[in-house]
Amino acid sequence: MVRRKTSELIVRQRQPDNREGLPTIFNAPMTPTEWFFVRNHFDVPDLDAQSWSLRVEGAVDRSHCWGLDDLRSFDQQTVVATLECAGNSRARLGDRASGVPWQQGAIGTAAWSGVPLTQLLDEIDIDDNVEELVFVGADRGRLETADGGSVQTPYARSLPVEKALSDDVMVATGMNGEALIPDHGYPARLVVPGWYGMASVKWLVRIVAITGRFQGYFQTEDYATWEYDDDLAVRRPLSSIAVKSHIGSPIDGQRLAAGQTVTIEGFAWGGEGNIEAVEVSVDGGDTYNDADLIDSPHRHGWQRWSYTWAVPKNPGETTLLSRARTDKGEVQPADHDWRKGAYAVNMIRPVDVVIKPSE
Amino acid sequence: MVRRKTSELIVRQRQPDNREGLPTIFNAPMTPTEWFFVRNHFDVPDLDAQSWSLRVEGAVDRSHCWGLDDLRSFDQQTVVATLECAGNSRARLGDRASGVPWQQGAIGTAAWSGVPLTQLLDEIDIDDNVEELVFVGADRGRLETADGGSVQTPYARSLPVEKALSDDVMVATGMNGEALIPDHGYPARLVVPGWYGMASVKWLVRIVAITGRFQGYFQTEDYATWEYDDDLAVRRPLSSIAVKSHIGSPIDGQRLAAGQTVTIEGFAWGGEGNIEAVEVSVDGGDTYNDADLIDSPHRHGWQRWSYTWAVPKNPGETTLLSRARTDKGEVQPADHDWRKGAYAVNMIRPVDVVIKPSE
User: What is the pTM of this model?
Assistant: First the structure.
């Protein structure tokens, strides 16, 4: 069993244990494990590495099993990926939003190492008519449902087969150069770069091949949004992270000296899209100017950006804003779209600063 | 426009208009239109027969349209079918159940006339990979969603293609020998015998052929239940009516003379199954005896039954119960299964009677 590290996180819910990162995570390209948000739906399962196994079953020629040693026999890869909880920033929506009241910190960027899922699945003869793979965690429990009832279920999420077979989806056993800790899925978890964290099933023990679309709790009642097919409202599981940016510095309420030069900086991320531009406003949104995009070696990691601001000579107050855009044309919106419920909260976030007389 | 008839119903919700039948509906094999429960999700749309049309679109070779005169050019059929609202008897669940608080009367049996859907669809070249047909009503509006948001949508429900093409599904223009009234879908509605009423889309104006499974509001958030695929809780649209029976006579609280002979009678219905047996208990459920099944000429209409009871000679109180079983082996349960939320409430219903001294 891996030793549990000291954690530097803000508790948002005690039962189950849910904690988010401090604002300082937005000042570093990589998020240390002890600063990385923890999202649990049930108690953390106490899994033993020796007896752990990952089984593939369902619509396959024959079911198949790997232990941890089996995983180590495959070529290993390391992918730097930003994971964001689908409910991150929900607290900005106020009382109308139900769920864990995340501020900004249910996000982090780590180096994940393990085996590409496609390598594992090469060993399996999956039926031609399979549409989805369901990934099942060892965590389970009872949940109250919106209709007044309750269900007992493990945590489970599906991926369309095409997505599951894409290069970047992996079964990870390591995080930031060490073995996963229990909070992050020890001994093995799925990592689905570009998708909200709910897809990256922790404590992965089972993969079920199915011929239809999975209708599990965590993609119908939870982690789903309303969209429109023509005029028909339809429920869809959440998938790719919506484009978003965050000003790491200055911080809200910071006092800046009039007439000085200040670097406004932060990160932007866009799920399956790549960040094409980040614009910054220093006048509360009246005008925007392009920020500089800095070193971006990781396809699935967040994009660092900065903007050099000549602070006005007159004291007063102003609001800083950042707005990101992806190469798929997605732009951060000004307001929340309630068809998404209390998920995918990516509207532009204001940072109010005070311009103080220069000394 | 058809004249609106006087209605003999109990109001359960005013906006939208929802009314249920009086207990006397359980004393007659057929439910007169003015005694037939009314279930609306939005305001009743004001449709004009001349301009009404039903359009088929989506994954079809080319879209197709029929007016009312076109429908009349097909062979007409009349089917006696029992429609029950999926939320009928919900009031028995107490405060935990949300939704319209139906007592027992959101059910009725009528003669529906119109065109078998399969005849209409014979005119359409539907793509081979179509899985479902979505039936869309002209009624529409905004709905609050469980996740704190809201959606604007018409009423819409889907059927798997195989079900839609079964003989008994029809586009009805008549009810009990007259044109449909607005409350029941004028000028045309779907009727899906054996399924809960939500499938029988009123004010039908559009059929959309789709290659996947429809995830509309009325089959994910509403009118859906939790089931288990192995240990995985999954959301499924409601479909076939669950087996159920109702004692029409005697009624709750009725006083019966000791030593006399009383006929206990009522109806039983079982969705896509046929009623194979109805058992009656006159001792609060300690023992059950077979009731007689009476004339059942209608495959999709409810089954009348009766049981001759020699009332005990000693005064006191007792509880009468009826329990139905279908030829598919479904038996009415003693308790509600909350995986079904506040739907498909079909547990055995007690009728308490008083045995008074004979005069």
Answer: 0.89
Chain CA centroid to CA B124, Å: 29
Both tokens of A200, joined, read: 């990256």
Spatial distance between the Cα atoms of B139 and B142, rounded to a whole number of angstroms: 11
Q: What value does the CA radius of gyration of chain B take, rounded to a whole number of Å?
A: 21
According to the model, what pLDDT value does residue B5 have? 53
Q: Nearest chain B Cα to A96, which residue? A: B148
Pick A244-356's CATH classification: 1.25.40.80, 2.60.40.650, 2.30.30.100, 3.50.50.60.
2.60.40.650
- Residue-wise pLDDT for A76-124, tens only, equals 999 999 999 999 999 999 988 889 999 999 999 999 999 999 999 999 9
CB-CB under 8 Å, B217 with A226: yes
Whether B188 and B173 have beta carbons less than 8 Å apart is answered as yes
Using the Cβ of A254 and the Cβ atoms of chain B, whether some distance falls under 8 Å is answered with: no
pLDDT at A8: 87
- CB environment A137-169: b (16+ within 10 A), e (fewer): bbbbeebebebbbebebbbbbbbbbebbbbebb
Q: In which residue are the tokens 């602070």 written?
A: A311
A234, A236, A338: which to substitute to probe chain B, counting the most B Cβ within 10 Å? Answer: A234
Which CATH fold would you assign to the domain A9-237? Answer: Sulfite Oxidase; Chain A, domain 2 (3.90.420)
Amino acid A191 reads V
**What is d(CA A318, CA A353) in angstroms, rounded to the nearest whole number?**
6
Longest dimension (CA), chain B: 76
Compute the mean pLDDT over every residue in chain A, rounded to the nearest whole number: 95
User: How many other C-beta atoms lie within 10 A of the C-beta of residue A214?
Assistant: 24
Please report, as a single letter, which amino acid is at residue B167: D
Alpha helices (runs of H) in A107-221, residue ranges in sequence order? 117-121, 161-164, 217-220
Share of chain B above pLDDT 70, in %: 98
The domain spans of chain A are 9-237, 244-356
Instruction: Please indicate whether, in this complex, the C-beta atoms of B232 and A134 are within 8 angstroms of each other.
Output: yes
**What's the CA gap between B248 and B188, in Å, rounded?**
32
Contact B112, B25 (CB under 8 A): no
